[in-house]
Amino acid sequence: MPDIITVFACLSQCLNATTLRQLGRVTEAMLAMTGRVTMRGIARWAGPGGSYRTGQRLFTTRLSWGKLQWLLIRHHLLDQDDVILMGGDEVVVTKSGKRTYGLDRFFSSLYGKTVPGLGFLSLSLMSVKRRTSYPIMMEQIDKKQTANPPDVAKTKAQGQRGRPQGSTNRHRREVVLSPYLRFVQETMRRLLALIGTGLKVMYFVYDGAFGHNEALQMVKQLGLQMISKLRHDAALYFPYDGPYAGRGKRKKYGHKLDYRHLADTYLKASFVEEDIKTTIYQMHVWHKKFADLLNVVVIVKTNLKTQAVAHVVLFSSDLDLTYDHLIDYYRLRFQMEFNFRDAKQYWGLEDFMTVKQTPVYISANLAMFMVNVSHALIRSTRTYWPEMSVNDLKAWFRSRKYVVETLKLLPEMPDPIFIAQAIDQMAQLGRVNHAVNPV
Q1: Which pairs with CB-CB distance under 8 Å and at least 24 residues apart come from 42-50?
Q2: Most buried residue, 101, 118, 192, 211, by most Cβ within 10 Å?
Q3: 3-state secondary structure of 214
Q4: Burial class (CB in 10 A: 0-12, 13-18, 19+), 240
Q5: CA-to-CA distance for 274 and 336, rounded, in angstroms?
């Protein structure tokens, strides 16, 4: 059955015995508890040795959460023959009041508007083989430090229209990164330094918010290739392949890409599912705001009943990446949303009530840490519990808590076989899926 001691054995490399024991108590309480995951709730379920004061000590101890996550992922979740991507996304935690550190207004896609709360940047390692995202870095976004400086009002020059005399061309590879992009780049750099040479990561995947040249150059400065999405109306141009005019610089841009009339030359796949026809095109094109040639995949969907047409434009800086891998890698980014869902629904990302900087940071990272802990515990039970879910995992730990506390009232403790059978029988009350051969 799930064994948290075995999973936490690898963490002794960076935690002393006291902190590891505290983390174990808090983790077992979070796995068993019901209701909101707050420090008070954890203390109620932790039992002897897990008082409220013990939780306070852990929530004020500065830990290297990135290293903890990496040890957990490296020892329990990575496969040698897997392809690993780096993904990034933001998550918004709604909060009220005025005292919480970093409280501001952030846009929440869940609500479709800006809401008062906290913003966090999450970086994950995504397994192509397992189709799973493993969060590893969680950094709070401080809008005061990452916001762009206000534009300084400039007076219009009195003189001729057009380009000022003496101005030089700007090299589009030598970009000036915004404070937010510098914040993301520094977080990515720390992650790459953490995993070192033990893991080869080639691609960084982000949503359409990074569909611009500055983000692309920021990623390439770290030695990675970019996968993201462009606007649906992005102006793209084929490389010019016509004759040389005989004077001046050779033309760079050819015909503009027309999304309504894409040539069959670039067609890669076409299929129909439930009256929706999907056609996929791939080509190498220029964008006038980007410094490099882009590997672009256009996915066109047509409703055969209504003839309504929509398209999505994905791109990569790797010109050799095939269309199926590009689509697959970008689609895998959505697995990060399941991390956020689990962290909010089961591990207290929306519940914590701490207000100071360090406890807020620890609360958010603890919630994401529990996402990886649950992945590791569920992975260890796949042989006899193939459909185990987070609900099943929590039901098992909760039943063990009830059974052990009940057996403590007996004058003599029963044998371990009876205890295992009692736990399995109790866990059926809250299970969604059942084990094939319960142990």
Answers
A1: 45/401, 47/401, 47/405, 49/21, 49/25, 50/25, 50/26
A2: 118
A3: helix
A4: middle
A5: 28
How far is CA 193 from each of CA 77, 189, 197, 198, rounded to the nearest angstrom? 19, 6, 9, 10
Sign for the CA dihedral angle at 177, 334, 362, 111 comes to positive
Amino acid type, 43:
A
Instruction: Say how far apart CA 261 and CA 255 lie, in whole Å.
Output: 12
- Ramachandran angles phi, psi of 116, nearest 5°: -70, 130
Q: Which residues contact 241 (CB under 8 A, 6 or more apart)?
A: 254
pTM of the predicted protein model = 0.91
Confidence (pLDDT) at 188:
97
Q: CA-CA distance, 47 to 404, in Å (whole number)?
A: 11
Scanning the structure block, which residue is given the tokens 């969604």? 432
For residue range 31-89, list pLDDT tens digits in order: 999 999 999 999 999 988 788 888 888 999 989 999 999 999 999 999 988 999 999 99
Averaged pLDDT, 145-164: 64
